[in-house]
Design a protein that fits this description.
globular, alpha+beta, ATPase_NBD, five-stranded mixed β-sheet, Cell division protein FtsA
Length: 441
């Protein structure tokens, strides 16, 4: 596989998407190939059948390889699912010497302290995101590095998940014959694909409605402030239609996509759809008004649960107001009149998020569908990770060159070698999952 190409693997409840992309000369992402397969073995974002999941991954990968005429070796995979939850936590460290400036090592110490939090059995901290810092009681500091102070405090947004679920995903990827290059939180990947920097600054809630789960990510001042995973998605709507109209799942899904609407008021009583009966039975007649009533009831429930999470973050406080409102993405966001319903329930401005913000201009319309927001975000994440690796390799070279120069001419004043960048949590998590899988064999 070429060096500047990245592959995103979105393991969802209804579909598995493999997407191959690279950066073009304008810094935009060009999609070279895409593969899709029906997701078997995943329930509400969590793997519950390893063998079926591996087969589904292989199908999607083969299709993407054929489309791009490339061999895929490694992938960046997304994690989501109902086991992901988040909490707010504040912590502090007392520095031994307040006459030196705060540096990366102090922040590292503070973050490592958060990792000592006691979690429920089987849970582990996936992500620790500093919100704002306080130095010696002075609040609202965005960047403490380079400042003086004795007591360094910070508020953290801590994302927690079941480590066994994450390892299972890693196992599926490895068993499908792929290298695990990176792990990313799916709400973060979708956010990177569909939100602009201005929206993240102003305050925005991204709602990604998938098949099995609905992911929420809230940004304000360019920082992620709140994440939540609600264990309902498009599948429960299909299930309701199946039960309510006594039809099979395939027909229910088609009905939802073709005629479904989240707003029952717009259908007349006499609009009827006829559905073929099973094996010689009479066809069934369903009124569109009834169909949209069934959909409406379930969608209202999902949106209200999301709104509770937005209120939990504190949207109603003046300081935390989300000025850019709500952005809907994911396959479920394509439901007719959903935008109007969300605006009605929450009273917030709403738009549908298409992942075309960072894609090359000549991208296929199918790729810029909200359906592929997470996959596009994962490709972008994979490309970023490659850039970071190149930068790190360059710093390593500079450090070596500097050390050699210092050894060769001891009488010349020594120059400090450049500092290495701190690893992000997801990079550390990826390494830990890789180590675990390598040792488990």
């Amino acid at each position: 596989m070429e060096q500047n190409i990245a592959v995103g693997l979105d393991i969802g409840t209804t579909k598995i998407v493999a997407m191959i992309g690279r950066k073009n000369e304008y810094g935009k992402v060009e999609i070279l190939g895409i593969g899709k397969s029906k997701s078997l073995g995943v329930h509400r974002g969590v793997v519950n059948n390893i063998t079926q999941t591996i087969q589904s991954i292989q199908l999607a990968i083969q299709e993407a390889e054929a489309a791009a005429a490339l061999k895929i070796e490694g992938v960046t995979v997304g994690i989501a699912g109902q086991h992901i939850r988040s909490l707010q936590h504040s912590d502090y460290i007392t520095r031994p010497n307040s006459e030196t400036v705060i540096d990366e090592d102090d922040i590292e110490r503070l973050i490592n302290q958060v990792h000592k939090l006691v979690m429920l059995p089987g849970e582990e901290i996936i992500h620790v995101l500093p919100q704002e810092y306080k130095i010696d009681g002075q609040a609202e500091i965005k960047e403490p590095i380079g400042m003086y102070g004795g007591r360094l405090e910070a508020n953290f947004h801590v994302v927690v998940g079941q480590v066994s679920s994450i390892r299972n995903i890693g196992r599926c990827v490895q068993s499908a014959g792929l290298a695990l290059e990176g792990i990313t939180l799916e709400p973060l990947a979708s956010a990177n694909a569909v939100l602009s920097q201005e929206e993240k600054e102003a305050g925005v809630a991204l709602i990604d409605i998938g098949g099995g789960t609905t992911d929420l990510a809230i940004f304000r001042d360019g920082i992620i402030r709140h994440t939540a995973v609600i264990p309902f998605g498009g599948n429960v709507i299909t299930e309701d239609i199946k039960e309510g109209c006594s039809i099979i799942e395939k027909q229910a899904e088609l009905l939802k996509i073709k005629f479904g609407s989240a707003w029952p008021g717009e259908n007349k009583d006499n609009e009827i759809v006829s559905i073929p009966g099973l094996r010689g039975r009479d066809p069934k007649e369903i009124t569109l008004k009834n169909l949209s009533k069934i959909i409406h009831a379930r969608v209202v429930e999902i949106v209200e649960q999301v709104y509770v999470e937005i209120k939990n973050y504190g949207h109603e406080e003046q300081k935390k107001k989300l000025i850019a409102g709500i952005v809907l993405t994911g396959g479920g966001s394509q439901l007719k009149h959903l935008k109007q319903l969300v605006e009605y329930i929450t009273g917030m401005d709403t738009r549908i998020g298409y992942p075309n913000e960072h894609l090359a201009g000549d991208s296929d319309d199918a790729i810029t569908s909200p359906l592929f927001a997470t996959a596009v975000g994962l490709v972008m994440d994979g490309l970023k990770r490659q850039d970071r690796k190149k930068a790190e390799a360059k710093i390593e070279e500079e450090i070596q060159a500097q050390e050699e120069a210092n050894q060769e001419s001891p009488e010349v004043e020594k120059v400090e070698p450049p500092k290495k960048q701190r690893k992000s949590f997801l990079d550390t998590l990826t390494e830990r999952v890789k180590d675990f899988l390598d040792n488990a064999e």
